[in-house]
Structures are given as C-alpha cells and as structure tokens.
Specification:
Layout lengths: L1 H17 L11 H16 L3 H4 L9 E4 L10 E3 L2 H4 L5 E6 L6 E5 H9 L10 E3 L12 H4 L4 E7 L11 E10 L2 E10 L4
Parallel strand pairs: 1-8
Antiparallel strand pairs: 1-2, 3-4, 5-6, 6-7, 7-8
Length: 192
C-alpha cells in the first residue's frame, strides 16, 4: 500500500512540474509564443528582414496592417519570399485615420513609420489573446483570426495630451502542422 501511495505522489509531482500554461485556442505554451514574437520584433527592428522569412506562414503568408481593423482589400499579405532579399518596392498599406491619405511605403519604411515609432514599445505590458485597450477604435481581428493566438505589445503613451500616443502592436500566430507561424502584424494606433 505504501508503495502505491509513493508512486501516486511521484506521478502527481511529475505532472505538476511538467505542467505548462497553454493557450485556450491552439495549445501552445504562451512563454514560447512570447519568445517567438519578441524574436520577430527584434529582427524587424534591426532591419534583418531575411530572418523574418522563417516565421511567415508557408501557405497563408502574413497580413500587415497599420490598423487593428482588418481591411481585406488593402491590407498587404506578404510571404517569406518577400523578405528573403532586401528591396525598396513600395506597397499600399491603407489609409491614415480620419483621412483619405494613402499609406504607401516600402517594407522597411512600414516598420519604421508604423510599428517602431517609439523605443519603449517592448518594455511595457504584453497581452495574450486579449484586447487590452479600452478605446473606440474599430477592431475586427476576432472575425479573421478567431482560432488563432495573438500577442499585443502595449505602450500606454503619455507624451501627448490625453495619452493619444498609446499603441498596441499585435502579432497573430496560426498552427501549421507542428509549428506556429506568423499570419499577421496589426497596429492599433491613431495614425495622423
């Protein structure tokens, strides 16, 4: 009897020690996804876009949008091949908030002008499968990415009156075979 009790205690301890926090959507350890997202952003910030290629979903590509609201007609869906060789090709990324001003930028300029406008971006709160900000910006990510995991890197702002300089950069991941790949980078910000 004592032997059985010790075996049960050992098995229970082993299960507890090996337990990992899992996403409610795809079953990935959230710390692994956070690590992958930080690597992607690190490579983009360092302008090492060729390293981004291995993270892009092999069949679906990745949507790049300057807004939280997915606009299928104007959001750019890029594939690994678009990042393997540096180029200055420009793309139409959509429109700036409350205007008809087109956003036409190269990939490096998109990251510089839309994603990395503040150095403090990665030193603040990270949201996991959650919409953190309480704002009135239209966001339909849950329609396009309802079965996918996403991380939001939240910067609260504070340099402008009424904190209108806050930002959230979201990376969306989809499982393909045994790996989670990037299928989207969306930026929730007031584009002026």
């Amino acid at each position: 009897m004592k032997k059985i009790i010790w075996v049960l205690i050992f098995l229970n301890a082993a299960l507890i020690l090996n337990a990992q926090p899992l996403s409610t959507k795809t079953g990935i350890d959230d710390s692994l996804l956070i690590q992958k997202a930080k690597e992607i952003l690190k490579y983009c910030k360092a302008k090492q876009y060729y390293k981004l290629a291995k993270y892009i979903h092999p069949t679906d590509g990745a949507r790049f949008s300057p807004l939280a609201h997915v606009v299928a007609e104007s959001d750019q869906i890029l594939f690994a091949k678009d990042f393997r060789k540096p180029n200055r090709k420009t793309y139409f990324w959509g429109y700036r908030d409350n205007s008809e001003d087109s956003i036409i930028l190269s990939i490096p300029d998109f990251f510089d002008e839309i994603i990395f406008t503040d150095k403090a971006l990665f030193h603040n709160q990270i949201e996991y499968n959650n919409f953190y900000a309480d704002n009135d910006i239209s966001n339909n990510m849950d329609v396009y990415y309802k079965n996918d995991d996403f991380l939001g890197f939240y910067y609260p702002g504070g340099k402008e009156p009424d904190n209108l300089d806050w930002k959230i950069v979201r990376l969306v991941f989809r499982k393909y075979k045994t790996t989670h790949y990037l299928v989207g980078i969306m930026c929730e910000i007031l584009l002026r």
